[in-house]
## 1
Amino acid sequence: MHGRVDPVPGGWTYTNLSNEGTFQDGRRITTRAFNERLGLRLGHPVAGPELTLVPILSAAEEERRIARRRLGKRLAILGGVAAALLLVAGVLGLAFVVGRDDPVKPAGDDTDVLEAAKAATVKITAESHLLDDPSSTGTYHGSGSIIRSDGLILTNAHVAAPESPGLEEKYGDDVRIADPDYLLISLTDGMTDTNAPASYRARVVQADGELDVAVVQIYADEDGKELDDELHLPTVPIGSSGDLRAGDSVTVLGFPAVAGDGKSITVTTGVISTVLDDPDLGPRSELDTDARIAPGNSGGTAINDDGELIGIPTSLFADEGTTVTSGRIRSIDAAKDLIDEAEKEAD
């Protein structure tokens, strides 16, 4: 739970309930009183979803509020451009997947395919601090896919290397997070679908902020000691996103915060709603989906019916002025050049 909203005389109060804390303008706060619309960003400070808290006021209070707004005193709402109070619940939280709430079967209904994908999906945890205030520290987590048995892992740049050039332009620079010293990697327990305690440390091999993709390599155990033996980790095969069409099935795996702070892997299914052309990244570089994505899914696994990796769950898209949201997946074909470079460097 990120926080609680309570009625008080003359308005409402937001109270932080997040272990990582709530931040206003880079400073940690415990409570924040408000009596007009208030912008609240949950989880990831640049890719996390924004909420608008709208206080319930009496008719007289509402008339006074409207009058004040006519005088030019505005607060930002979701997607608005006015200067606003920004509350960030937690230092980081990382992208999300949200869709159908009903129990769903994995794409293709192939248990072996799904179990293999689960085994290759990892939880990534790191400690960092605000660039503008190094004393403001916190822990965040995201997800990743093992693409090579020696511990090469594909994820998002905003998970592995949040200082990567291009991320500010993509998500804004309201809250900037420092690159962590290392990443902790937790494997999935195949018996319980929970993430085991961190087993390894990993470091960034390649990262591209504009693409929001990174490749990291396991190099030590969880305590930083050199590995004694070669790794033989489960992997997910890399597929192709070139032939994907609207209506094709997709299954998303990761460790979002909705599952007990990312303690259990989640599996959600949906379809590719549309294939998008990013003006900076080229044609068919982004996939829009109705599959459920939530904070912590960032960098995780998106597979087709054959269990092949077709993309990286990256962010949520909110249509300004509506309540419509959808998940965005970075297509795997757009990331293949970066993967090739990382493999050469890791060899």
Note: The first strand starts at residue 3 and ends at 8.
## 2
Amino acid sequence: ENDGVITWELVVERINSDLANTMGNLVNRTIAMSNKYFDGVVADKGAAEPVDEDLKAFVTAAYDKVEAKMDELRAADALTEIFAVFKRLNKYIDETEPWVLARDEAKADRLSTVLYNLIEGITIGAALLAPFMPDTADKIVKMLNTKIRDFETLGTFGLYPSGNKVTDKPEILFARLKEADVMKDVEKIMEKQRKEAAKQAKLEEKAKEKAAGASQKAEKKAEAKEPEKKEEVTIDDFAKLQFKVGEVLECQEVPKSKKLLCSRIRVGGEVRQIVSGIRKYYSAEEMVGKKVMVITNLKPAKLAGIVSEGMILCAEGPDGSLALMTPEPGKDIPDGSEIG
């Protein structure tokens, strides 16, 4: 089942209602009134009325609500609580009617207090919004000539400096969108995505065809390369060879060689130096600590000028790659153990 339905029409509606109207218009109206009535100076004159206390209680309680939603990883619900603050501030404008207060000089202090409360509420709202929309929050506080507050302070109303001055050139945070214009842009985006998807599908199809061809070649090559049959030996001849488990203690690349590794391998009570042509398939670092199968009674021989005192057993794949013969995973076979 779907958790929700998202359409471009709904996106436009939410941008226009929440971002452009509820928040953007609130910020611009408040700054515009501060400039119109008090030349941008925001001062708390202490002319409070009961309606102010309800606003302050609502705004200062918002942080705990947002935190509770985020504790449950409910980010969408947390944003709903933040925008509830901006909606409450819009309601406060309707309740206090600043434009009516402005007509009466005797109510200048009350008008100043109302605008201060709006600026303070917007500042708290911006701090709540910052983790979700940091650029927008930063734009808001810059226009209010303040900064983003710490979360610990959001339960206190009245920290905005009285007498501070807001910008006289407020920025439009979010312009209203026309659905028809947006849908034209959406169609262009979708057409581009369709072309890119078709192009990607062709590339993937070519890659599959190439991979299939390579696989067929590899299969044919594997079929064609049969292991060379060697002369039969007697059980007595085979018994002459001594196979033991050894543990690689150290391993180094042989200088001036692209194929050889030189390993020091502990086999029971002795440590042997063995040179092997496995550098293409194993790095010196990954060899250290491995348990390997070793022929221990070969006569020492020199490889690239280094004495080799045995042979590490490997299996060769159809493509010529080598894989170490190691004890069965999960079985703790001590070094020095006989194989046979």
Note: Residues 8-177 form a domain with the Isoleucyl-tRNA Synthetase; Domain 1 fold (CATH 1.10.730.10).
## 3
Amino acid sequence: MRIGIVGLPNAGKSSLFNLLTSGSVPVETYPFTTIDANHGMAALPDPSLASLGNLLSPEKLTPAMIEIIDIAGLIKDAHKGEGLGNKFLGHIRDVDLIFHVIRGFENSDVAHVSIAIDPAKDREVVLAELALADLEIVERKLDYDRKRADAKDELTLLERFRTFISQGSFSLNGSYSVEERLRLKSLGLLIPRPRVDVLNLSDKKQEILLDKAYRLSVRLEEELADFPEQEKEELRREAMLDPSGSRGLLERGLEELGLIRFYTIKGSEVRSWILPDGLNALNAAEKIHSDIADGFIKTEVLNVNELLEIGSWHEASAAGRLKVKGKDYIVQNGDVLLIKFR
């Protein structure tokens, strides 16, 4: 799974990338510091994994990881190739979720593409460019599908989508089924991809509002790096930010992607994994290693909260709390799996 960070130049995209991945890509006060996309891995904060570490004291505690891509800044008419438009749009087609960073902070030393800070207008600029790029693809695809006798369903879907975005609608919400969204995404379209708008504010209280945006201050997150978690939450609330900070943003990303966590305990390692919701134990085994999936026999299952309550796998087994499931068992969020295989 990949998350792409997009937005106008100097909105704080590379700073957010560094924050999430502990990276060190250059951050400057002028536009287009980022030309080629930067790739990094973000460790997903996981209180349950930390609690398992405290309980079991393993030699290795491995969090689930997700790929983050820092994409070059977009400007008006990017769909026509302006700025780094073609490269920008191409990179977005490679991601599963968009973190759209929108500038809300004032800083005279950091250039902005507009005269004034206007998050709502900036959001519209970026989404309009994505929509216009989609329209170009849709028109070409419609011309092709009209010549095919077997493309009636796709033709209907594309015509409906064209009308939708031509009316200035940039969020699919409940207008399309999961299958329809996946089909539109498979055609390289951008608007159908799930998106989290991230309003990047200053480290001081700001009353700027943006509907449904996640309120974050990258600068404050950097300053609070070594603070206790409770103090971090208090300071974020004082600044009118989401109290969960960057951790909450990644959690929001998992929710948008429909991902759950499961855990494995093997030898000296306790590890967290991510898996699309609705998949089964065999899919989880494949995630761990193909050999485990090929030789799958059964899995013992215990919810992580139950394990933390009981204290050990052995005690849970003795108390009859373990469930034994086959390969078709649908993995639940927070499951600890002990897979038996040949």
Note: The two ends are 29 Å apart (CA to CA).
## 4
Amino acid sequence: MLMIHFIPKFTKAIPSSLVAIVVMTIIAVVLGSYGIHLQNVQDFAGMEIVGGLPEFHIPQVPLNLETLSIITPYAVIGGLVGLTEAVLTLQVLDEMTNTRGRTNKEIIAQGLANTVNGFFGGTGGDAMIGQSIINIKSGGRHRLSGIVAASALMFFIMFGSGFINAIPLAGLVGVMFMVVVGTFKWESLRYKGKVPAQDILVVIVVSVITIFADLATAVIAGVIVSALIFAWEKGKVIYANVEETNVGEKTYKINGTLFFGSVLNFKELFDVDNDPDKVILDLKYAKVSDYSAVESISSITKRYEDAGKTFKIVRLSEDCKRMFHNANAFTSVVIDEAEAEIIEYPYV
């Protein structure tokens, strides 16, 4: 870790990670000659890594639904993890290099490469955050650097497998620790009190689930938690500007988004018992997003009808009109399109 940190301060001609691994391997070999063994890659793998060219073959598995049922869960999890890490890696590299990557192109290339890779006995892969940051820290900035890194790894495995077997895990752990140090956004520790507590909660949930489960599960859980928090917060941002005339007419001008998360607050805006005989719902500055909102408006309309009062809706957007039209079979709302153009309700 010290070598990776201090070597770039003197020279960047040689990647500090490579220097650290070579030096640690030499130290491990020297210590081994004195009877002190440091656990290496061969010990971790449980076998000696032998290089060689891959051979093309067709997977010898039965093509039926049973095989598909076995493969599908792992394929979905692997795909989610690969896509997620590729996108996140691309975002981190864009920030580090002040560039803009093409996410769609990266995902398509990754999918094609993994498809071909499977016919040569390889496992699926993606844009690994650790290797990518090592590449950037070592001076790589263009596509050629990725090709060189992949080619070098291939030649190492094919012709330098003996050296790979001797690499001590201590050296690799140090490299990965420095990757973590370089990747972690240390300024996020100062976010408390400066960013919404909901965002901090999502970060904690995703981090904990990643540790105890896997990245795919963590991402799915993070998306669900974020969606629920958004719905909860969005549901609270709805209010009404109320205007009442001397002729016994009251207008509720709704501001906000009507959806499943805001229908309870929306219903509390109305005072059916004390309202006059004529009530108008102005939706010019509101958006009806789902059928939960349509149903809530329909139930309010029925409450006014049961009280012997008229309740009509004016100034809907075309999307809202279409939604009410599609839900006409199970709603009882009254939309006054005739007055939509001649009634002027100043927005307050």
Note: The chain has three domains: 2-186, 187-235, 237-340.
